[in-house]
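re: that complex we talked abt at group meeting.

here r the seqs, copy pasted straight from the sheet so there may be weird spacing, ignore it
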Amino acid sequence: MRKLLSMRKRYEEFWALKDISFEVHMAEALGIIGHNGAGKSTILKLLSRITTPSSGEIMINGRLSALIEVGSGFHPELTGRENVYLNGSILGMMRREISDKLDSIVDFAELRQFIDTPVKRYSSGMYVRLGFSIAAHLDPDILLLDEVLAVGDAAFQRKCIERITDLKKNGTTIVFISHDLKAVQQLCDRVILLKNGRIEADGDPNETIDLYRNSSTQLSSQSTDGFAQEPSREAVVTSLNFYDENGNECLSFETGKPMKAALNYRVDKPLRDVVFEVQFYSQEGRLRSFFTSETLGGTIDVEPGQGSIVFDCASVGLWPGMYFIDAGIRNRLAPYGIDIDWRRRCLAVRIDYDRHLRDTFYMPYICRHSPPPILAHEWPQRSTITQHFS
Amino acid sequence: MVTPVTALPRSSHSRPIRIIRPASFSPFDLWGGLRELWQYRDLFYTLTVHRIKVRYKQSVLGLSWAILQPLSLMLIYTVIFSVIAKVSTENVPYAVFAYAALLPWTFFSSSLTNATQGLVSHSQLVTKVYFAREILPLTYVGASLFDFAVASTFLVALFFYYGVRLTAYALYAIPILLLLAALATACSLFLSAMQVRFRDIGVAMPLVLQLWMFSTPVVYPLSAVPLRFRGIYAFNPLVGVIENFRRAVLQGVAPDLYSLLISAIISAVLLPLTYLYFKRVEATMADII
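got the structure back, here u go
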């Protein structure tokens, strides 16, 4: 049985978790969901012993491994092979165990030809593949997973899910903490919904996820991250929904594919010169991109009543990962931070990608190939080639 | 609710039971901590090797840096104390006299300097993964010990050059070195844990180490210290260690067991205390680092 009571931080007294008690059975896959700040990562940190509870008790039966951020122990100067040893031993493996599993780790990561290259020359996808592959070979009794599956290309993600499913079949207990509802639904037998450090719901994945979905899309009925709605608002964002290219409501997209966001609002008295915005924040809390109604040009004046604004994006340029969404209405001339209504981190959107994406930027392009007739006498001499490359 | 699923037979290891409670500190924690440290011995090895590798990767002089550091200090002090101001070194050439003490001193001071930053510079790791955190400062002590081994080859060269002959007393260097390593470990544990909370420690370190070196018989012999100060002087645990290291290796005489005993008692007290302090800070380290 595991019991989590609380965790106290310094300075201002703040209980990240309070009166929490739950059990996870052997070979069960438990998902933990909730808004940012609900206490998910604190649970993970307590279970993985990164930090210690200030009261309460946790009992863990079996070897536990936490996969919180893949590759966080990597050293850029060392080669892939050296990093496997380094990262493996940080995660609690013995050197012999690593040597035995090295081939399997390298093959799973599909990095055989790059294994003796310093990891500073790896693309981010390669980095993640190697990191996950090491962790996937830990062979723990209990596996803690964070947002790890939100990175990497689609094919590798499928492989990861398969691997985790295999582990589960073999009796590994899984605790999966994520915003990625699709993956939670796919993996978990049971889901806990956290809200403000307490358990809001605990049970069937579909029911719990629906409960969470309802609380996050209907903004008027929720208070996200303690940003309670003040009754005297002149205008409120009532809902925010994302749609895929077929018009279905959706929270996961792919880089390069279309995305549509619809923001519904209610206005109580006439407002002059307002701006509607939807912002995308990375997991580290950095603003990565945003939609704004300022692109319409001119000024937007609104009369009392309901309305909606749609942002239609033909090609998502965001890098793969989880993004947290802010949505709001503000006066165009008001300084930043002074808003008519602002919904902070009200949704989480997941961006995937396919294999042909590398490095930092996504540029939409179309590739055309018109092969010229190659004549034998036009072929460059061997010596010219050598000269060219030396 | 979900009914428990019977697990399929898995790999043969038994399932350890661990109970996590709020940190409470008693001397009994010492045993549990040490047992866990032993489980992480491979991490200690891998990280120490990694430190050494990373330090000398992409550097032209490579390993010779381990020698250059005590060597350049030796040259400076030789000029100061045998050319400008004369210090009596009991008929031993000043260069080899200074180097024989700068060698263990450099091991001690570089352990402390690096270990102090050890936890903070790995905050990425500390907030993401659990492992016995004392490994981090300990690997710096280990890497400095490696540098010590490299730098001692130059001491051997100096012995050949000056015609110094080793005696059987040189074997005392081994327990003396262990004592020095124990002191370096105790200080590293304490300072690295303090540095997590108070970054002043890292800033103060160069100054503290400089003062410490001059209150230790490194660049002058113990005999140069006036008798009336010796009582207080001996409470510096490094006095017995450094002076006796030089006596055993260079002068080939029996060590002064009384001063060694003082150092041994101090380190026997400090080591468990600093370890418990470290474990206490470790409990909440990830939140404040």
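couple things i noticed - Chain B has one domain: 40-288. Chain B touches chain A through 47 residues (CB under 8 Å).
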